[in-house]
Amino acid sequence: MNNLLTILGPTACGKTRFAAQLAYEMDAEIISADSRQVYRGMDIGTGKDLADYHVKDKDIPYHLIDVADAGTRYNVYEWQRGFLDAYADITSRGRTPILCGGTGMYIESVIKGYEFDGRAFPPFRSLIIGLDIDREERREKISRRLRARLDEGMVEEVKGLIDRGVSTERLIRYGLEYKYLTLYLMGELKYEEMVSLLEIAIHQFAKRQMTWFRGMEERRGIQIHWMSVAMPVEERIEQVKELWQKQIVLE
Q1: Number of Cβ within a 10 Å radius of residue 41
Q2: How does pLDDT run across 56-69, given as a tens digit for each residue?
Q3: Class of domain 2-134+214-250
Q4: Class of domain 137-202
Q5: How far apart are CA 177 and CA 183, in angstroms?
């Protein structure tokens, strides 16, 4: 059986940083499950936060980030193929794969083995850790993070994509930051209106993510071990390592 460790949760819960810290302790590598971080040049708006992959004195290897050009289409089937390649590469070197992200469809397509091309998908047994963050804390983090990313040059990032020939229609379809900043740059929204609408949209997105994860548990029978982000990181890491060891023993 193919064993897999999965870290999931809503936006702004600290998934990437926790997964990287866990990878440091477990000699692991991270496979990203984010439908927009696959695109090159879409960095600030997708929250790649690549600095999070540097833990202490070590750069944690990551996969399925920056694998497609902005403006192109990249679907769940292509991501599945990339996942299988990354998984095989990581395990061939004796390391542990950690799947980390907030795109529920991508995560579920691996765990449930959904077939998108008519071919059987290999079975995976995954220990799934969900990061639970207080709703108000999540809202505050989303708001702070949005303003920080605007200060970091998110508007300029989107303008640069348009200048390089990425269609405004495609950027709008990417949603959230790329949708609202594109509408602002097209003159259809004023700046403060754009910020307000985008902030609301991100809050709504986080709620949809949690709805998906609850559906995984309640309607599709997928067990998720929830851990509060209020718990010290060291304690969370130890709990995950214990659960992981039990899964390996049961193999």
Answers
A1: 16
A2: 999 999 999 999 99
A3: alpha beta
A4: mainly alpha
A5: 10
